[in-house]
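User: Please fill in residues for this 596-position structure.
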């Protein structure tokens, strides 16, 4: 007989924790909050490690590289600039050979797919892969941001914490959201923005109340860790914000329109560039080298577009960058970011979006301030608002952008300008392009995520496959005492009201009946028609479940009558919200089995 395999340290640790949980009678919610504390600490530490690793790579490649090549500002030796990002791209090759398919390109959409579709199972090695791949790309001058990588690192920390404690389903998603919230909060010293990033972008607008507490705790803990290491200073040096005149709000709305259109242009440039490199007849490992060389070539003339650009952002906020330069680098940063990530470099879109938005806002302010000097704020104010508005338009996440800017300034006067520019920009971007820069990749693969659900699954099931034909109808002239008797004996909570011909004229809920019980004087005169709701929202058997979910969202009811499409008063059955969710979960389970 073979000897049993030894118990791993993870199993021993898990067993010990479970014994303590049982002994202390810890509730699942308390356990989740305790886990969020651990995830917050680790994600805050993850951001420190990422930032220091990027700095170390930058020092080696830029500091040592420029010295070795004899590069001086303004000198002809700047022609060697492309060699710096190419060096970073070269470092990606062994990493890509070791972990094929896990290193190159913009990885955040794949992360969203794992969280919202594949059960949130993220390998522990993702932490190190993302850490080094991003550091090699960004530290060598590639045009990308740290925020996407730290969100993925934090999410991987949350996922592996959940794996250790053997949680699954929604609790696993919450722990992943805790990690991403912690990473973003640590990066910007902005805990509220971290929470909203997790809910609005990672969970795709799933604002379930049960998610809030652990995510808030994790975000707060990660912020404390980051502040303890880097200090209280914000990443952006913002001057005191001033709204000179209420008329400025109109200008901010106009700027929002410009930003919405610009966001759509950026998304288009990025995916066209990615498609170009996908078709390019070149070995996949060499494509990041080509992209890095092109970025370096642009950097010879405009070094502002390389790296995260945070130093350049602070210069623009102080008003130290000329109008012409800001207008030029808007397009160049779009191209440089598309080349970096579209060719296979590693990094995120969050930072470049802030950079581009700031330059658009600064350019807009540089035009309107000389025209209306007595009614407009300095250029830096428009640059700052543009930064958040463009981020919101690109990611379709206005709340994250609004609260990020508010937390960075800690000035309530920025709220109105940011609201006007951000909301207008996001509406314009959504009207012109359905998907954000993060969900476009998934849509191309036939995956449509909304509010944490894959809408394509809901579109694959029709109402007729889920509806119940078990319906208790109440004639419209039924007296109240008989209505009450029906309601008490029935397991249903909603009752269609019909006329003498069996045509539906309204719907009666158990809540409507309860409210009428205490009308002692009127009960003897009340009939079903008097207390029924006549403006009934219905579905047909041929409707898909995504249509039904949209209609559930418009009402505060748990069931919808199913009617004949040719006769909206002919009742065929009832569809409950619970049955829709059950059908969705079953379809999701089948989808997950295909990934296993």
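Assistant: Residues filled in for all 596 positions:
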């Amino acid at each position: 007989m073979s000897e049993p395999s030894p118990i791993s340290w993870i199993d021993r640790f898990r067993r010990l924790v479970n014994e303590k949980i049982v002994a202390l009678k810890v509730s699942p919610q308390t356990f989740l909050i305790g886990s969020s504390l651990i995830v917050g600490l680790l994600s805050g530490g993850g951001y420190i490690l990422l930032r220091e690793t990027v700095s170390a790579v930058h020092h080696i490649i830029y500091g040592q590289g420029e010295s070795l090549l004899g590069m001086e500002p303004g000198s002809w030796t700047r022609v060697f600039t492309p060699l710096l990002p190419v060096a970073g791209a070269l470092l990606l090759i062994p990493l890509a050979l070791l972990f094929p398919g896990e290193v190159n390109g913009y990885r955040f959409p794949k992360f969203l797919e794992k969280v919202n579709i594949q059960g949130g199972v993220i390998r522990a090695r993702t932490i190190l892969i993302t850490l080094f791949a991003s550091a090699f790309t960004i530290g060598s001058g590639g045009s990308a941001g740290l925020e996407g990588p730290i969100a993925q690192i934090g999410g991987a920390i949350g996922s592996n914490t959940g794996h250790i404690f053997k949680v699954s389903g929604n609790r696993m998603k919450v722990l992943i959201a805790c990690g991403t919230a912690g990473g973003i909060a640590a990066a910007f010293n902005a805990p509220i923005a971290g929470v909203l990033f997790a809910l609005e972008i990672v969970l795709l607008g799933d604002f379930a109340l049960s998610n809030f507490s652990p995510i808030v705790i994790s975000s707060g803990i990660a912020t404390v860790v980051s502040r303890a290491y880097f200090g209280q200073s914000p990443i952006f040096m913002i001057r005191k914000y001033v709204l000179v005149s209420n008329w400025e709000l109109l200008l901010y709305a106009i700027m929002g329109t410009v930003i919405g259109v610009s966001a759509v242009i950026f998304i288009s440039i990025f995916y066209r560039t990615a498609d170009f490199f996908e078709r390019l007849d070149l070995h996949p490992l060499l494509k990041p080298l080509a992209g890095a060389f092109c970025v370096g070539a642009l950097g010879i003339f405009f070094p502002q577009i390389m790296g995260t650009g945070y130093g350049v952002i602070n210069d623009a906020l102080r008003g130290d960058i000329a109008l012409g330069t800001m207008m030029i680098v808007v397009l160049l940063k779009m191209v440089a970011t598309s080349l970096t990530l579209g060719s296979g470099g590693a990094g995120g879109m969050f930072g470049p979006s802030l950079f581009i938005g700031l330059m658009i806002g600064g350019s807009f302010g540089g035009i309107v301030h000389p025209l209306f000097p007595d009614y407009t704020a300095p250029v830096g104010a428009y640059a700052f608002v543009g930064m958040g508005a463009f981020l919101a338009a690109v990611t379709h996440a206005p709340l994250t952008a609004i609260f990020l800017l508010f937390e960075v300034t800690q000035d309530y006067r920025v709220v109105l300008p940011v609201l006007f520019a951000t909301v207008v920009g996001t509406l314009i971007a959504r009207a012109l392009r359905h998907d954000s820069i993060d969900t476009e990749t998934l849509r191309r693969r036939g995956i449509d995520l909304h509010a944490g659900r894959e809408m394509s699954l809901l579109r694959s099931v029709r109402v007729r496959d889920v509806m119940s034909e078990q319906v208790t109808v109440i004639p419209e002239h039924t007296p109240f005492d008989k209505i009450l008797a029906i309601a008490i004996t029935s397991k249903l909570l909603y009752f269609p009201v019909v006329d003498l011909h069996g045509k539906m004229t309204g719907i009666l809920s158990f809540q409507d009946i309860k409210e009428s019980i205490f009308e002692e004087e009127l009960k003897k005169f009340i009939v079903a028609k008097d207390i029924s709701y006549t403006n009934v929202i219905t579905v047909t058997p041929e409707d898909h479940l995504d249509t039904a979910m949209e209609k559930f969202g418009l009402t505060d009811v748990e069931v919808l009558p199913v009617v004949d499409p040719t006769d909206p008063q002919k009742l065929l059955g009832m569809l409950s919200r619970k049955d829709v969710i059950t059908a969705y979960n079953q379809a999701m389970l089948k989808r997950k089995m295909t990934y296993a």
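For context: The chain has a mean pLDDT of 85.
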